[in-house]
Amino acid sequence: DIPIGDDSDLLRNLRAALLDLGDPYQPLLVAVREAHQVALTARVARAPDYLWDDVYARVHQALFDTFGFHRRELGQPVFASEIVDTIQRVPGVRYVDLERLFAMSPGDPTIRVEPVPTLVVPPGGVLNTRLESALARWDDAVDPPVILPAQLFYLNASLSETVNIQEA
To answer: What is the pLDDT of residues 61-119, one digit of tens each?
Structure first.
């Protein structure tokens, strides 16, 4: 995944090809996806006959294989249960305690989207255990309405920046 500017040659050529070869009576708008990096903190207990370094490396690889850019779709949400399941399936993992799950905008890592600071139900609240991702949609809050690009939630290839796995 790389940043693509709205005025890049790639986008200009894609728009031109779609207009030239597409249905002339079908309106068309091409927008760059809105990318968000998934970030998490989890405590993992290992089985006694496994080394922590091996389990740790396998957990990181399993997370990237499941939630990396190459495996995610536009508009696909991220569920806490998917993360726990992915980690739990790693040989040598006894149990997983997912403590934090949130997404960050790669353009500004201080911006968090759909925060889930802990997976604890607040008093009178509902447990939020997913990061919602949207397909392209209209923003009717502005006049004239504009289209908002589809969102893509994924783990960065450099997992050390966004994934904090600790031994329980």
So the answer is: 999 999 999 999 999 999 999 999 999 999 999 999 988 888 877 565 544 544 444 44
Name the least confident of 14-23, 81-90, 109-118, 138-147: 109-118
* Whole-number Å distance between alpha carbons of 43 and 64: 17
For 38, phi then psi, to 5°, come to -75, 135
CA distance 61 to 68: 10
Structural domain spans, the chain: 1-32, 34-167
Whole-angstrom CA distances from 159 to 40, 64, 77, 102, 126 are 10, 8, 19, 14, 29
Measured CA distances, 55 to 88, 94, 166 (Å): 11, 10, 11
- What Rg, from alpha-carbon coordinates, does the chain have? 19
Beta bridge partners of 40: 101, 163
